[in-house]
């Protein structure tokens, strides 16, 4: 519980709230229909991708810029943050998402609000198919995050922020035709709360959480294993201080330095 007495811990929690608020505000805002006709998928995909890239650059060094309960769950599965920090992150993300959607609702004309870009299944897509799509979308996203955030990589090329943003954009370019591309339970939760529409809402939790967990296991245990003992992983999950972890470096979910190079 020592984390609760750390100023950096609370700065990270606020950063997650603040970042998720802006992510939902700009992402959902770009997804509203201001004129008749089909929604431009590329516009929405780029809006979400650029919003996340901007926020990774802005708060990545403070909280890691998870901005997504599924991503936080992935880092928890990989024993890269404490359980306490993960719970606080998720609460902050959900509150930030609802706050962002509420601000968007208040500044948008009633005729344009619609369902606030609520995630819905495309006609003909079953809940099983939708869940599998969400799993795959989030799996590739988490793999990209783990690879680009990995402090063990030498000579990382390009921009971490842009790599993560492009991965999210890719997911939207494909997923919007199937599920509206949730990939983020907080993003799906916010409009559902404001519109009181939870039809098939569980898909946008189960799919991303499973995909994120699989991505974490695949990267941390198969593709690029982290050689930690069970006791080390448990001490990290408990948020133990270095002295309580047999002198091992403290790992409690603090973000790694996001070193970038010009493209």
From TrEMBL:
The protein's role, per its UniProt record: Aquaporins form homotetrameric transmembrane channels, with each monomer independently mediating water transport across the plasma membrane along its osmotic gradient. Specifically expressed in lens fiber cells, this aquaporin is crucial for maintaining lens water homeostasis and transparency. Beyond water permeability, it also acts as a cell-to-cell adhesion molecule, forming thin junctions between lens fiber cells that are essential for maintaining the ordered structure and transparency of the lens.
Record-linked PANTHER family: AQUAPORIN TRANSPORTER, LENS FIBER MAJOR INTRINSIC PROTEIN
Gene3D superfamilies tied to this protein: Glycerol uptake facilitator protein
Organism of provenance: Capra hircus (Goat)
Key word Transmembrane helix present: yes
Identification of the protein by name: Lens fiber major intrinsic protein
Region (Disordered): 241-263
GO biological process terms, semicolon-separated: gap junction-mediated intercellular transport; homotypic cell-cell adhesion; lens development in camera-type eye; maintenance of lens transparency; visual perception
Subunit (UniProt): Homotetramer; each monomer provides an independent water pore. Two homotetramers on opposing membranes can dimerize, forming a cell-cell junction. Interacts with CALM; the calcium-calmodulin/CALM complex interacts with the cytoplasmic domains of two aquaporins, leading to channel closure. Interacts with BFSP1 (via C-terminus); prevents calcium-dependent inhibition of the water channel activity.
